Amino acid sequence: MPPDSNRRSEKSRRAIYAAALTLVAEVGYPKTTIEAIAARAGVGKQTIYRWWSSKAEVLMEAFVDLGAQAAEAAGSGDWAETDGIPDTGDLEADLKTVLRATVDELNDPRYEAPARALAAEGVGNPAFAKEFVATLLLPSLELYVRRLRAAQDAGQVRADVDPYIARDLFVSPLAQRWLQGTGPLDHAFAERLVEYALYGIAPRRP
């Protein structure tokens, strides 16, 4: 029986994913090359170029696969891989649950190095940035909008609130602290962020 080419291709693809993620963590994104990925994966570089046009594309696909594999191993417990942000009827509790999970992922070494590399690539590569946002960011961000609209329907958020602007009140400060390291990125920060976004910072009226 001839070898199964689909199985062989899948094995090579997974080896390439692993090589790209490992190299970025070990030597950094600038020193990670297609040649180095190919050598680490035990494939020819033409195999990589047959599927991807750049190391950024390899890394992005590897990163997406990493998240999918982690969610599958956890029994699809990742909120972004299921039906969306939990809706228990308690908006504050649901948002805190999600932001705590996001903090854990951003602090996980498996995710941090490739995520920072992809973010950096997007700064200097507008075409890649557009793909990065569409593939990795917008699907998760849209889940916030859906959850906030459900809260509006339930009377928990004012009807005149733009859910897209409200979404950014939660996720943008988290991303900024992660990128710039301006303070601790922990559960306490995530929970306070939800409270400030939901209730504001002005003195509460008696």
UniProtKB/TrEMBL annotation:
Record has Transcription as a keyword: yes
DNA-binding region: 33-52
SUPFAM superfamilies, per the entry: Homeodomain-like, Tetracyclin repressor-like, C-terminal domain
Entry keywords, A to Z: DNA-binding, Transcription, Transcription regulation
Signal sequence region: none
Positions of the HTH tetR-type domain: 10-70
GO molecular function, one term: DNA-binding transcription factor activity
Pfam families: TetR_C_11 (PF16859), TetR_N (PF00440)
PANTHER family cross-referenced by the UniProt entry: HTH-TYPE TRANSCRIPTIONAL REGULATOR RUTR, TETR-FAMILY TRANSCRIPTIONAL REGULATOR
Protein name per the record: TetR family transcriptional regulator
